[in-house]
Design brief:
This protein is mainly β. Helix content is 14%, strand content 39%. It has two helices and seven strands. Strands 5-4-3-2-1-7-6 form a seven-stranded mixed sheet. Helix 2 links the parallel strand 3 and strand 4. The termini are close together.
Length: 109
């Protein structure tokens, strides 16, 4: 998912929602009817990379408070909007394909 796509989709959401990464959500698919244990991972910041394409990588830190949607929005607008978004978790980069809203959380996945 590109930054510009994400910003367009969150335009009408409450800016005080927390933003987290949803790790382990149904990675096996619907055929096996298995759902992994889901973990909500806190997002603490971001950095950019130019590996195979322009990337924006969201950082995870368990000891810091996670970002509000308005904070993430401000940080994202400081970069090229065509960058693709990734989350760095467990020393791997996971591409982001979308999000869902649950209570006061925006869960990236």
């Amino acid at each position: 998912m590109r930054i510009t796509d994400f910003l367009a989709m969150i335009a009408d959401l409450n800016r005080n929602f927390w933003v987290m990464y949803e790790f382990g959500a149904n990675r096996h698919g619907k055929r096996t009817e298995e759902v992994d244990h889901v973990q909500y991972i806190k997002l603490s910041g971001l950095h950019t990379a130019e590996i195979t394409q322009p990337q924006l990588i969201l950082e995870t830190t368990p000891h810091q408070q996670t970002l509000h949607l308005w904070e993430l929005s401000v940080l994202l607008r400081q970069h090229q909007l065509r960058r693709y978004m990734y989350v760095e978790y467990q020393d791997q980069q996971h591409p982001l394909f979308g999000f869902r809203v649950e209570k006061n959380l925006v869960l990236l996945g």
